[in-house]
Specification:
Number of domains: 1
Number of helices: 12
Structural class: mainly alpha
Largest sheet: none
Number of strands: 0
Helix content: over 70%
Order of helices and strands: HHHHHHHHHHHH
Length: about 300
Amino acid sequence: MVKPHSFASLTGVVPLMFVALWSTGFIGAKYALPYIEPFNLLLVRMLITLVVFGALMVVFRAAWPSRLQIQHQLVVGSLIHAAYLGGVFAAIKLQMPAGVAALLVGLQPLLTALIAWLALGERLHLRQWLGLLLGLAGVSMVLLQGQDIDSFTIHSSALIAVVVALVGISVGTFYQKRFGSGVDLISASFFQYLATAFWMALLSFLFEDQSIQWHPQLIGALLWLVFGLSVSAILLLMYMIREGEAAKVASYFYLVPPLTALEAWWLFDETFGIGAMIGLLLTVIGVFMVLKLPRNQRVSATVAIE
């Protein structure tokens, strides 16, 4: 017989499992991209994911959204998945270290707080302002200490790509909050991934030659990105929503950049120098300060599913 406290323990562990899975998306991209172009990789990944989610819709008898809800989810997918994933994968393809890419897009809660203040007039507390400044200072240190990171130079195209990713997820967060509620999560994900597949197909055919080297490393990375992240991560998110734990994801979000940096160090020898490590720590603390407010004062933050 399973004791009641066992479920409580599982519920507490699930957000950590989710964030741990999410952090590996950067690593999966690094493994796959030597053998395929970024937009083509995402196109193949999205097509496989659509088949899986189509099956999940049938198995779980997911409610079909209305036409207006479908339109909103297509926009959300274009922002939170297409812009975010496309930008991250392009940046890594352009030789931005996985740890740095994770750090920069990890600024999403800070940018969300700033947008909320500028666009919605939401009040920022002193602790949040200090967190914003600390986070920006930390990122500046990492970028200025680029020589301390093996094989990393500040490539303007890579920075533009990662900024597109950061803005996409931040704007998509507000759009989802405003227009995307009340939709079955599986159905919503299906249409979000459908929009992503469209944009990746367009970008791939416009800017890439669709060449693929079917190396075992690419196949393994692709299977992990689909089933480890696009499927498993979203099922964990469904569990958290059902158990009322989804809000904790934002609290754990600050763990992603150092976790990705640790994974990249272990797997790819992406060595951070002292200045970059201090900058990473400052950024993590800054994001933590923005997120760790009393529940009734916390700024919303959404984590994109890789």
